[in-house]
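Proteins fold reproducibly. Next comes an illustrative record:
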Amino acid sequence: MDTFPLELRVNGTVHHVEVEHRKTLADTIRENCGLTGTHVGCEHGVCGACTVLVDGQPVRSCLMFAHQAANNDIRTVEALAQGNTLHILQTAFIENHALQCGFCTPGFLMLIVGAFECDPDIAGNELIDILSSNLCRCTGYQNIVKAVRSVADDLAATRAARTANARADS
């Protein structure tokens, strides 16, 4: 098979790679960019383990060709932590025992980060609907839901405090 040059922006870093046109974004991120946090599960877009953010939107990277992601900003689970400081959602997963084997965890994290970034007020049944699009064979989902709800509550409390402080200052 012929390979073609491609430039991908993953987690703020430009990667110059050579891939076949049929190579998926998931495989390219893992094999050509060396970022193995994105997992490949079903390869049919059903399980969500391969979820990454493309221009801020959660996508199943096993269903997207790498060439389709050219000129877009791609974020993977490796971009969540800032140095040794975990993202609030990563911390919530740990504190709420929301993972066991961890295979599905990167996909859940990216799915929910994308949801919170698109709609910071998302809560309740909307969160449950979003979470239901990813599969986990270990946890039974209750602790995942608990972790995500704790972050949603924290974000809402932070927004309320900012609003109260802004009113007090004016």
In short: The CA atoms of residues 128 and 145 lie 7 Å apart. The first strand starts at residue 4 and ends at 10.
